[in-house]
Amino acid sequence: MQNVIVDQDSKSLSERFALIQSPRRSRARFPAGCVALVGDESAARAGANPEKRLHPAVVYGPSASSEGQQVYYLVRWLE
Questions:
Q1: Taxonomically, which superkingdom (predicted)?
Q2: Is residue 5 part of a domain?
Q3: pLDDT (tens digit per residue) in 34-73
Q4: Residue 40 lies in a domain
Q5: Which end of the chain offers a freer environment for a tag, N or C, measured as fewer CB atoms within 10 Å?
């Protein structure tokens, strides 16, 4: 994660497992509408669906962007 300050004391910002809907995997941040949080790594992997462009990942957030949107930052892909 580049250019993201991680607040270890934050109660709302944290690393989470998720499914990200995206046509490509080259982005570093995603709007909250493209991110579906799941309970654990196995749920993220089980929900993967390349045909629907759902990719399992670990994300950090949500955080407010400079445009006023809620975004999640990619930590790593699980595939």
A1: Bacteria
A2: no
A3: 999 999 999 999 999 999 999 999 999 988 888 889 999 9
A4: yes
A5: C
